[in-house]
Structure prediction request, 304 residues.
Amino acid sequence: MLKLTKKADYGLMALKYLAEHPEMPALSAKDVADAYGIPAQLLAKILQQLTKSGLLRSHAGMNGGYALARDAREISAFEVILSIDGPFFITSCTKGKTGCELTPSCTIKEPLARVNETIAGVLKSISIQDLAEHESPAPRAKESQQLVSLNR
Amino acid sequence: MLKLTKKADYGLMALKYLAEHPEMPALSAKDVADAYGIPAQLLAKILQQLTKSGLLRSHAGMNGGYALARDAREISAFEVILSIDGPFFITSCTKGKTGCELTPSCTIKEPLARVNETIAGVLKSISIQDLAEHESPAPRAKESQQLVSLNR
DNA sequence: TGTAATTCCGACAGAAACGGTCGTATACTG
DNA sequence: CAGTATACGACCGTTTCTGTCGGAATTACA
Prediction:
């Protein structure tokens, strides 16, 4: 759980790829898909979605394709994920404006909202640019793996 | 996306409930389920899982039920979620030990591993106790809602 | 000893989400 | 007009999630 969908991954990869090729006025969905071995049609839909959200600019016809709508530094991972996976947020409760419908009780979400905020913050702090130059900040995270799995 | 499963929610709620009733030597799955309107059988399985992971102690028979295995301060949300939802972690890639199978390319996961770490850290910093006394630390997070939804 | 309460556990079913494909319409280039 | 692309909706198979059912083992208590 708590993992991104493949779509979101694909989206991030695609944007990263675009950021790495600023010389190209546009890259087609197929170009990017081939570069990573992603199903082309699926990626196409993802890029269309990102275009609708204003993160990309598209251009049909020959030599058409997609390009970043803004500087890679100005596009956050948060926006990409939000665009593709939709509004998410930790608690199953948090739907729309009204809290939990069933429970008068779901006091859980209050502290969890902070977690939410933190995650969103981290995601917002990471730009496509950071992904492209993938030796960004931070201490490598060698032992980020205490996912030793109690079970499953 | 990025949201907890209902099971994890239920699990957290249940532990919180147990933490709020330290006077009881044990509470049955049904007790907790009724308190929140959660399907009893489902909650039962969740509590069994938490028991297997060592977060709860169970006792069968009349007046049996579940109790926290440790002090509520010593049980983190991280452990609960890990127990119920299993090892998760951001990138779809990160499976087992080997990285992405398809892509020689998935350089994305490197920066995202940091995000992962951060999230895990936050989750670990929140104890069941924090949930129980739900006026814990932190600045309320009033405007934690910029989930205005670009789409969907 | 018997009965009720309760955990334990596996199997299964319905529903939703995910990942991916297909077909077609539309737009742009030359 | 022909070719290259995006745009978009419908559909499908698989997996995951949520929840239910049925039965077995355990314990308390009268």
